[in-house]
């Protein structure tokens, strides 16, 4: 077997040792209580959950009471969109609600918007440029209530795109929403630990983050909700987390998230720079090895960790298969197990032509990345390109032969 | 046995699951692939899951269980073009196609082999009940399951690189093996359907692909062989040679479809004896051994699971073979396959003209 190289950190990351160490006491008899219990067992664990809440809050410049722990980024996005909608239309009639978002959002946001639409709301996806960044003039028009559907009930624009890694003008969007009095939600799942997240500087009303993208455990995330803005719960039960997100807390996961978020925020400036240098070096080598390859998202500001590249005459599924068998773990954009060759909605929205969009391979760097991997990855990528081009030529020749028959 | 690198097609059914597991047990280096052939109604947002997702998940679970990598190959475009389009055209021409033959001949195996070549695999494998030995194709040992009838159109060079680990097993033995390997698909029900024809309703598929006023789905006359009018039908694509359903009844002797004449939109009916043919012509012939010559003997099978009929080659040229039958064949349907055997060996085959 060739040495394995993991370049899919945007999908998930390994749990950090410090995080695991922080979690271990909560996976045995040492600290197992229910944080809602009044007795000492409960108190002990409640203190740990609240400490984690403080750490997560500090990592994004928020107040601890603003942090709602969820089962992950997807639930946080759902809670923001559907929970704010329900709060804005408590009678259940959503027909007057208008949501404004972008076509390059994660499926968690797009599918939540689709659900809101199904319940009668109107959804507008703002036009984006070649880098997938929203058109601020169009946003202004939306905020002024000039678009069909009227003044928005919520604007939702992600911080860093999960497929191409471009950074949306979140500060400008947040300021505009604040001025217009419209709540603003941002999916910041790919941004935590990659860029500075400070809600004191960027006035978001809601922010979705996830633990397992930053060395924390899977199954834990948070929606950070600015005081005064409260979504209606999506699930119903006890009074945990103010009743907005009831259910006995995932204590070990939350404690792990606290540790991971604190580390991610503290290390962000240094780690981001190192990742960016490695990413740029890999990008330069890939471009040199496959000169006609196209890197997506370079027309706008980029986060440090994601490199999305298409070699003409290849397709993602064959490329990923060849890379995997050569020991390189990459992805074709958002994680998708269907094997569908449909081009990514993100690349489509950016205007990438279909033959290039279906060839996209996403490399995402992180904790396991090392500078010396770049040359090995480049070598294996170039070989895969050559083989897949040969494969497609063979399939094309068969097809021509068949047409002659 | 020499260790080979094998790309195995895994549909998510029990047969191909066991084929993959047996190859792993035999010590080969195995890579699993599920060919995604079709999908109706998957929107941009997953309101309902794609119809082939379950099969892919099953194949992946089996691959994980037996410890092999598994990938999905998207053949939707090829399949639509080479198989579904042909299926529709054939019915519109009054014929009775077998899309699985078309898929095996033009889509599945050639694409699988191209992928195998690119991956450096020596062989490709499937879960068919048939045998490929030394470049020749044979019937599967389980006569009730034998699938060699559907495989005549594979390129001869591909047969030389095929492994069909179930070729010597019976279906119950395959199920036992699946249980022994503790595969999630061990008790999975058999699908007898054409994969892209839900509930066996092929007319619905034709309606979806043909224009609303297509002659094949429009009313037309039901005629006797002498040209006299017996009644009316509501689309000749709903008929096949030998069919009794959807014909006027109340006669002393039942009527059967004996011919379809698309140019007149006519379904021609006759009595049982009118179904017999003393000869059959097959076109688009593919040879899997030395081509037969006039005067050669073989057996020809004209339907899946029908009895092979001893025959004499009357003429053979330009990919067309005309056979004289020792006993008459009943209900020879254009578009079905005529497969040439000698004993268990598949010599070749073609499409009944």
Folded structure, characterized:
With 405 residues, chain A is α/β, with parallel strands linked by helices. Chain A is built from eleven helices and twelve strands. A seven-stranded mixed sheet of chain A has the order 2-8-7-6-5-3-4, sandwiched between helices. In chain A, strands 9-10-12 form a three-stranded antiparallel sheet. Chain A has a two-stranded parallel ribbon with strand order 1-11. In chain A, strand 5, helix 6 and strand 6 (184-187) form a beta-alpha-beta unit. In chain A, helix 2 (40-60) packs parallel to helix 7, helix 7 packs across helix 11 (373-404) and helix 8 (316-325) crosses helix 11 (373-404). The mean pLDDT of chain A is 95. Chain B contains seven helices and 17 strands. Chain B has helices spanning 14-25, 53-66, 76-92, 99-119, 156-159, 171-180, 202-209, and strands at 5-9, 29-36, 70-74, 123-125, 130-133, 136-139, 162-163, 220-224, 229-233, 256-261, 266-270, 276-287, 297-301, 309-317, 320-330, 337-342, 345-352. In chain B, the strands form three sheets. Chain B has a six-stranded antiparallel beta barrel. Chain B has a five-stranded parallel sheet with strand order 3-2-1-4-7, with helices on both faces. A four-stranded mixed sheet of chain B has the order 9-8-11-10, with no helix packed on it. In chain B, strand 14 (309-317) and strand 15 (320-330) form a beta hairpin. The longest helix of chain B is centred in the first third of the chain and has 21 residues, at 99-119. Chain B is globular, with a radius of gyration of 22 Å. Chain B starts with a strand and ends with a strand. The interface between A and B is medium-sized, with 27 and 31 residues.
């Amino acid at each position: 077997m060739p040495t394995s190289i993991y370049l899919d950190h945007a999908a998930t990351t390994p749990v950090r040792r410090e995080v695991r160490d922080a979690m271990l006491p909560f996976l045995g008899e040492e600290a197992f209580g229910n944080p809602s219990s009044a007795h000492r067992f409960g108190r002990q664990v409640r203190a740990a959950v609240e400490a984690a809440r403080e750490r997560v809050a500090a990592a994004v410049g928020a107040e601890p009471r603003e942090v709602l722990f969820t089962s992950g980024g997807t639930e946080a996005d759902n809670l923001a969109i559907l929970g704010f909608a329900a709060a804005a239309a408590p009678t259940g009639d959503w027909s007057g609600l208008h949501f404004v978002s972008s076509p390059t959002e994660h499926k968690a946001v797009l599918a939540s918007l689709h659900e809101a639409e199904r319940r009668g709301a109107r959804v507008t996806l703002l036009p984006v440029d070649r880098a997938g960044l929203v058109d601020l003039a169009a946003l202004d028009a939306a905020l002024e209530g000039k678009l069909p559907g009227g003044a928005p009930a919520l604007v939702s624009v992600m911080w860093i795109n999960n497929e191409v890694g471009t950074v949306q003008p979140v500060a400008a969007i947040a300021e505009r929403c604040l001025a217009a009095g419209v709540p603003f939600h941002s999916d910041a799942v790919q941004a935590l630990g990659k860029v500075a997240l400070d809600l004191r500087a960027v006035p978001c009303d809601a922010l979705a983050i996830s633990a397992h993208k930053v060395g924390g455990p899977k199954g834990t995330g948070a929606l950070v909700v600015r005081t005064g803005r409260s979504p209606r719960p999506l699930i119903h039960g006890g009074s945990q987390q103010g009743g907005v997100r009831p259910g006995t807390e995932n204590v070990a996961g939350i404690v792990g998230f606290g540790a991971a978020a604190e580390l991610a925020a503290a290390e962000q400036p240094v780690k981001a720079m190192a990742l960016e240098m490695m990413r740029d070096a890999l990008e330069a080598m890939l471009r040199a090895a496959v000169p006609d390859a196209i890197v997506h998202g370079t027309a706008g500001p980029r986060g440090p960790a994601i490199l999305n590249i298409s070699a003409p005459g290849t397709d993602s599924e064959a490329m990923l298969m060849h890379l995997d068998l050569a020991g390189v773990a990459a992805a074709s954009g958002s994680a998708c197990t269907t094997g569908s060759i449909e081009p990514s909605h993100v690349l489509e929205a950016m205007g990438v032509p279909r033959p290039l969009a279906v060839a996209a391979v996403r490399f995402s760097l992180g904790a396991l990345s090392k500078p010396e991997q770049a040359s090995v990855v480049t070598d294996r990528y170039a070989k895969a390109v050559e083989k897949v081009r040969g494969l497609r030529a063979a399939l094309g020749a068969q097809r021509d032969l068949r047409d002659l028959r | 046995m020499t260790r080979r690198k094998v790309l195995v097609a895994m549909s998510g059914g029990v047969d191909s699951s066991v084929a993959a597991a047996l190859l792993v047990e035999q010590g080969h280096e195995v890579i699993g692939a599920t060919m995604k052939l079709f999908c109706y109604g998957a929107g941009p947002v997953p309101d309902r899951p794609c119809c082939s997702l379950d099969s892919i998940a099953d194949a992946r679970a089996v691959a994980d269980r037996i410890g092999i990598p598994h990938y999905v190959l998207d053949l939707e475009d090829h399949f639509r073009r080479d198989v579904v389009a042909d299926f529709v055209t054939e019915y519109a021409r009054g014929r009775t196609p077998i899309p699985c033959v078309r898929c095996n001949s033009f889509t599945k195996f050639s694409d699988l082999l191209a992928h195998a070549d690119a991956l450096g695999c020596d062989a490709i494998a499937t879960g068919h009940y048939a045998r490929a030995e030394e470049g020749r194709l044979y019937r599967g040992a389980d006569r009730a399951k034998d699938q060699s009838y559907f495989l005549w159109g594979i390129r001869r060079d591909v047969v030389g690189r095929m492994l069909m680990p179930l070729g010597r097993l019976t279906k119950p033995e395959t199920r036992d093996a699946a249980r022994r390997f503790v595969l999630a698909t061990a008790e999975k029900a058999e699908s007898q359907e054409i994969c892209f024809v839900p509930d066996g309703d092929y007319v619905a598929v034709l309606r979806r692909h043909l224009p609303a006023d297509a002659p094949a789905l429009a009313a037309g006359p039901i005629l006797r062989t002498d040209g006299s009018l017996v009644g009316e039908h509501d689309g000749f694509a709903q008929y096949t040679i030998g069919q009794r359903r959807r014909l006027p009844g109340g006669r002393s002797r039942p009527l059967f479809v004996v011919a379809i004449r698309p140019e007149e939109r006519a379904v021609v009916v006759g009595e049982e004896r009118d179904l017999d043919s003393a000869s059959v012509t097959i076109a688009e012939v593919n040879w899997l051994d030395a081509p037969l010559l006039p005067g050669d003997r073989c057996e020809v099978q004209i339907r899946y699971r029908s009895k092979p009929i001893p025959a004499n080659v009357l003429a053979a040229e330009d990919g067309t073979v005309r056979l004289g039958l020792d006993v008459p064949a009943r209900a020879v349907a254009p578009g079905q396959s005529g497969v040439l055997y000698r004993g268990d060996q598949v010599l070749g085959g073609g499409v009944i003209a």
